[in-house]
């Protein structure tokens, strides 16, 4: 193993926070020469406010694979286009609330999954709906935690087979299957 790819909520974090014991373990992992990639569905501002020690990570994949962040430089790179304005407007018109917006991701909660899927279909878009523990996420086709992880590992001159993945939810399956071990 040359890298650990880890989900945030329910994996590294309990009740939204990473405890000191976990932080010490992550620091030991890094000190041993391993890379750490955080892979989360959260929007980046939420990650940064919930996880002040994010700089223990080499890279952060946020927005369920749509945004790559370098904690050492404070740089972010969007890995897919922003959601179409027509989609945002139509979801708002149809009363989908709350409707969170990231750089790429749109997010709401059940029971809006069917309405979101119908809106995408009615607009003739090819966006995907990803469900996770009651969350409903909308992303461009081909964007998921696996695609984001591949981008992050590429920046680190690594391939997915060199990573061990850990996660706890439905939206983790894609990146876990991409890793050499999970």
What brief labels describe this structure?
182 residues; alpha/beta; Rossmann fold; Hypothetical Protein Ta0175, Chain: A, domain 2; 2 domains; 6-stranded mixed beta sheet; 6 helices
Textual characterization of the structure:
The structure is a single chain. With about 180 residues, the protein is of the alpha/beta class. The model has no long low-confidence stretch (mean pLDDT about 95). It is built from six helices and ten strands. The protein has a six-stranded mixed sheet, with helices on both faces. It has helices at about 20-30, 45-50, 85-95, 115-120, 145-155, 175-180; strands at about 5, 35-40, 60, 65-70, 75-80, 100, 105-110, 130, 135-140, 165. It is elongated, with a radius of gyration of 16 Å. It is about 30% helix and about 25% strand. The chain has two domains: about 5-80 and about 145-180, 3-Layer(aba) Sandwich (Rossmann fold); about 85-140, Hypothetical Protein Ta0175, Chain: A, domain 2 (Alpha-Beta Complex), CATH 3.90.1070.
């Amino acid at each position: 193993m040359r890298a650990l790819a880890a989900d945030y909520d329910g994996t590294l974090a309990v009740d939204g926070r990473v405890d000191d014991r976990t932080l010490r373990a992550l620091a030991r992992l890094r000190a041993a020469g391993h890379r750490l990639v955080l892979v989360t569905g959260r929007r980046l501002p939420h990650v940064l406010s919930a996880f002040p020690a994010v700089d223990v990570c080499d890279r952060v994949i946020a927005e369920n694979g749509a945004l790559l962040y370098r904690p050492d430089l404070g740089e972010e790179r969007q890995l897919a286009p922003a959601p179409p304005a027509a989609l945002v407007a139509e979801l708002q018109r149809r009363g989908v609330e709350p409707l969170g917006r990231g750089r790429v991701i749109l997010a709401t909660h059940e029971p809006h999954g069917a309405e979101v899927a119908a809106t995408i279909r009615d607009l003739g878009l090819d966006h995907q709906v990803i469900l996770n523990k009651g969350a409903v996420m909308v992303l461009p086709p081909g964007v998921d935690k696996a695609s984001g992880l591949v981008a992050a590992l590429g920046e680190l001159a690594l391939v997915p087979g060199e990573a061990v993945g850990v996660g706890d939810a439905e939206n983790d399956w894609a990146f876990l299957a991409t890793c050499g071990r999970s």
